[in-house]
Each structure stands twice: as C-alpha cells, then as structure tokens.
Write a structure and sequence with these properties.
98 residues; alpha+beta
Length: 98
C-alpha cells in the first residue's frame, strides 16, 4: 500500500462516521472547545472527546491549549496537501510519443 493510500485510509476513517463528520462540520466556522462542540453536535462531552482523539490521530483536527481550555480546529493544511496529492495521482498521465 502506498503512502498516499495509507493517508487516504486515515482520512476516510476520520470522516467515516456521522458524529465525526458533524464535529468536522461544526469546526468549519472556526475553533471550538469540547463543550462548544458537544452543544453544537448534541453529543456528550465524553463522546466528542473520543471522536476528537480519532480526528487528531488522522490529522484532520489539531488542538491548542489556551489557559485551562483546549481549542480544536481543522487542520486545513494537512487536508489540502492530501487532496493535492490525490489530484496529482488522478491526473491522466501523458503518453510518450514513439
């Protein structure tokens, strides 16, 4: 399995569940705490934390501690890099002239 394939597998795992996709969608508008994500997604804080762990492992979300709170944001750079790599792989290869 190529590195790109492994990275795409991680990406799929990250957004491969409705609760994780809802968390990602909630982060489209900017960084949020676990409590804010729980309210926005109507999930318990412990469930949000479990899903955030998976999202962090897959590289889709990053966190930053600010005082007592941890803010979660989308890791847009990682996602853009991954999608660019995928796009390059999907482009038709130019045929060599004989």
């Amino acid at each position: 399995m190529t590195d790109l394939c492994k990275d795409m597998e991680k990406f799929g795992k990250g957004i491969g569940s409705v609760p994780r996709y809802r968390i990602v969608e909630a982060l489209f508008s900017g960084g949020k705490t676990v409590g804010e994500l729980a309210k926005k997604t109507k999930l318990s804080q412990s469930l949000v934390s479990q899903h955030l762990r998976v999202l962090k492992e897959t590289g889709l979300v990053q966190d930053e501690r600010q005082g007592q709170e941890v803010w979660y944001t989308l890791n847009a750079e990682h996602t853009i890099r991954l999608l660019k790599r995928l796009t390059q792989e999907l482009k038709p290869k130019k045929k060599r002239k004989q």
